[in-house]
Amino acid sequence: MGYLDEYRAQGFTVVRGVFGAGEVAELAAAFDAVRADALSHPKSWRHKNLLYRTWRDAKLGRIVRLVQWPSYAHEVFQRVRTDARVGDILAPLVGRDVKQIINQLHWKPRGAAMAEFGYHQDIRFRRPRSAYREPEANYVQTGIAIDAHTAATGAMTVLPGSHRLGELDMEMNASVADTALA
Predict the structure, then answer these.
(1) CA 4, 157, 100, 77 torsion: positive or negative?
(2) Which of 10, 21, 52, 66 has the most CB atoms in a 10 Å sphere around its CB?
(3) How confident is the model at residue 162, as a pLDDT?
(4) pLDDT tens across 26-80, in order?
(5) CA distance 124 to 140
(6) Distance CA 21, CA 4 (A)
(7) What span, in angstroms and rounded, lies between the C-alpha atoms of 29 and 10?
(8) What pTM did the predictor assign?
(9) For the stretch 135-146, what's the b/e string if a residue is b when 16 or more beta carbons lie within 10 angstroms of its beta carbon?
(10) Which residues pair with 51 in a beta bridge?
(11) Residue 7's CB: how many other CB atoms inside 10 A?
(12) Does residue 9 contact residue 164 with C-beta atoms inside 8 Å?
């Protein structure tokens, strides 16, 4: 089964080998630079859409949880987010006239008390909601694993077939970033 068939059947797919080892090493170094930038601020920090979200962990001290729109300040991420190879993978699903609505980096430090993000559907964050019609046909989320992506390292969990359930009322008492997996 090809990646398109797998995506349509499961709601996700893994396409390996898009970036070479040297490119992944460059991304890893850029992650380290962004992490250093984030920690140079005394607390979470925002400038326009660029957001560094940090967290105080009881065991590890201050950690970086996520950065939104690192491509605004770091050329490596700007180049990767517009890479033609990614566009070629997405084109059969959503065409070539694509608008990226979010660009993020995530860290899940080993041993952190709160490194996960609660189960959620990203459509809950899209505003105005009327601008996101037929998300199942018009929206694709991509991710690039820089480090080993296993259960032991806090890999992203996707529930096969859940894309057929539509929007779910996934009640949370706090933000996704402040909610443990359940």
Answers:
(1) negative
(2) 52
(3) 87
(4) 999 999 999 999 999 999 999 999 999 999 999 999 999 999 999 999 999 999 9
(5) 15
(6) 25
(7) 33
(8) 0.87
(9) beeeeeeeeeeb
(10) 46, 68
(11) 19
(12) no
Angle at 57 between CA 104 and CA 27, to 5 degrees: 30
Q: Whole-angstrom Cα distance, residue 29 to residue 115?
A: 21
Quote the tokens at residue 123. 């459509």
CA angle 160, 119, 101 (to 5 degrees): 90
| Residues 160, 110: Cα–Cα separation, whole Å | 26
User: In which residue are the tokens 């952190």 written?
Assistant: 112
Ramachandran bin of 56, using left for φ above 0, alpha for ψ from -120 to 50, beta for the remaining angles: beta
What is the structure's pLDDT at 114? 64
* Total residue count of the chain as it appears in this document: 182
d(CA 175, CA 118): 8
Query: Of 16, 142, 17, which Cα lies nearest the Cα of 82?
Result: 142
Instruction: List the structure tokens of 108.
Output: 């899940």
DSSP codes of every residue in the chain: --HHHHHHHHS------SS-HHHHHHHHHHHHHHHHHHHTSSS-EEETTEEEEEEEETTTEEEEEEEE-GGGT-HHHHHHHT-HHHHHHHHHHH-S-------EEE---TT-SS----S--GGGG-SSGGGS-SHHHH--------S--SGGGT-----TTGGGG-S-----SS-GGG----
